[in-house]
Each structure stands twice: as C-alpha cells, then as structure tokens.
Amino acid sequence: QLTDLLQQYATAFRDPMMLQPPEWFKAFIYCEAFLQLPFFPVAAYAFLKGGCRWIRTPAIIYSTHVATTLFAILAHILFHDFSKSEHAGPQSLRERLVLLSIYLPYLLIPLLLLFTMLCNPHYKHVEKRKRK
C-alpha cells in the first residue's frame, strides 16, 4: 500500500515533511503537480525529437523554478529544528546529510539542464528571421 511505503520512507530517512508538510512545502507540491509535471512530456518530446530549439526558454524557466524550490528545501533540512516536529526528523548532522542526499538529485538534474540550455551552442544559437 502506498501509505505504508510513504510511512516506511519517512521513518527510514527521517523525513517529516512527507508526513506533515509545512504550508510552504505544500505550495511546492502544487507547483510540481501543475507546472513541473506538465513540462515533462513536452521536454521529453523536444529532447527525443532533437533539434527543437524552442525548448530552451521553457527549460530555463523549469530548471530555475525547481532549483529555487530545492534551495529552500535543502536549507530547511540543514537548519530547521526538527525536535518540535510531530514525526521524527533528522537530529544529527549525519541524518541531515542522508536526507539531503535524497533531495540533492532533484537540484542537480535541473542545474545540469540549465547549464546545458545556457552553454550548449546548439541551444544558444538564435535563428535570424528573413526580411520580406
């Protein structure tokens, strides 16, 4: 059952945000559902088809949005006092780093995408429109 799996994850990695998300975290979940998830099939199409330079701007918007949300989540993991949480949160530095390692790929992949969109010459090239 999914609720049991969620409970096991939250207990094993001491992630109370999954069981009792703060309001700001809920806002990020809605952003993920309504902004980020719809981007995936569009991006998959563009990257699988290849040569789609139009994906540059949506990919930059997506990757900066996700990176911004992840900075807040990672800061919360590192600095929040979880001793007052209803569910067990990370207490030691090791536990915080383990939880951080779970979320870190969700920052690194968008940063790689952003770097690709900004630095890859294929996506940087701007086509000049012909004058009539």
From TrEMBL:
Q: Which family does it belong to?
A: Belongs to the TMEM97/sigma-2 receptor family.
Membrane-topology descriptor: Multi-pass membrane protein
Chief location of this protein?
Answer: endoplasmic reticulum
- Which InterPro entries does UniProt cross-reference here? EXPERA, Sigma-2_receptor-like, Sigma2_recept
- Its recorded name reads Sigma intracellular receptor 2
Keyword Transmembrane applies: yes
Organism this protein belongs to: Sylvia borin (Garden warbler)
Protein keywords: Endoplasmic reticulum, Membrane, Transmembrane, Transmembrane helix
GO cellular component, as recorded: rough endoplasmic reticulum membrane
Which stretches make up the EXPERA domain? 1-114
Where in or outside the cell it occurs: the entry states:
Rough endoplasmic reticulum membrane
Task: Give the residue spans that cross the bilayer.
Answer: 27-48, 60-79, 99-123
Listed Pfam families: EBP
